[in-house]
């Protein structure tokens, strides 16, 4: 073996051992590289321990890329919702993620007609077995559900005391296809390289909404068992928000990062906000059609981007290497672009 002058066998052995330790450390700890086009910050890396054994968290190889849309607080049945729906349709997303409040009383109607008025006539091409058969959706919906939403407070309070009509209208996981929770109130599904965990954040959820609840225990165990590249939590009430109408939902400030979640997406506040906490990204996205909110004088810690001047939605593209989140308003303006690696 040739070695550089002045290097003893002991020195070489120490260098080799150091390299092994570094490589081993990288294998045991996952890293995230986050970059924001909106705030033009330099890339920063944060290293997070995995929450499961390496064999359980190994991403499934050769998974197809996927593009989808995210909308929140949109069931008003007015022109603003129509404008957002037109924007979303122009992207031709593979599926849509709804962040709750899919129905407001101003949309009118009763029973399943409520959801036809507030959702079906705008998004029926992604909905399975909807009753809407207007000119925008002459076939009456999709052959397979491609609309995954969470229960918002208005979906209960403005419709009826329980979410039964909501659960009957939407063909969600737990109603005919795989879901590990055993119910439709909260559920999970996988699309491309993303494992979605959709929570019920309303305080009347029978399985609770605290970090030690049955619902949270389900989330923690399923994230730990996930083999997908990305773990994304969806709920209605934002754990963190700078809006001046609701603000943060403290009871939902679960240790998502420690459990292995990459992104948390919420609605409820009729704003758009991107927040960095504990090394992961939180989005608030409630500009799907309902009246606009404003922000308080003091943003929450970690708030990076805040916008509440127009309605809009998120266009998202996920690959094995990254997820790109673009928030675009109804004028076509790119408000925020953010990449998680």
TrEMBL record:
Q: Which InterPro entries match?
A: Calcineurin-like_PHP (IPR004843), Metallo-depent_PP-like (IPR029052), PAPs-like (IPR039331)
Identify the keywords attached in UniProt to this record, alphabetized. Answer: Membrane, Signal, Transmembrane, Transmembrane helix
All copies of domain Calcineurin-like phosphoesterase, residue ranges: 68-272
**GO MF term (any one):** acid phosphatase activity
A Pfam family per the record:
Metallophos
- Spans traversing the lipid bilayer: 12-30
Q: What is this protein called?
A: Alkaline phosphatase
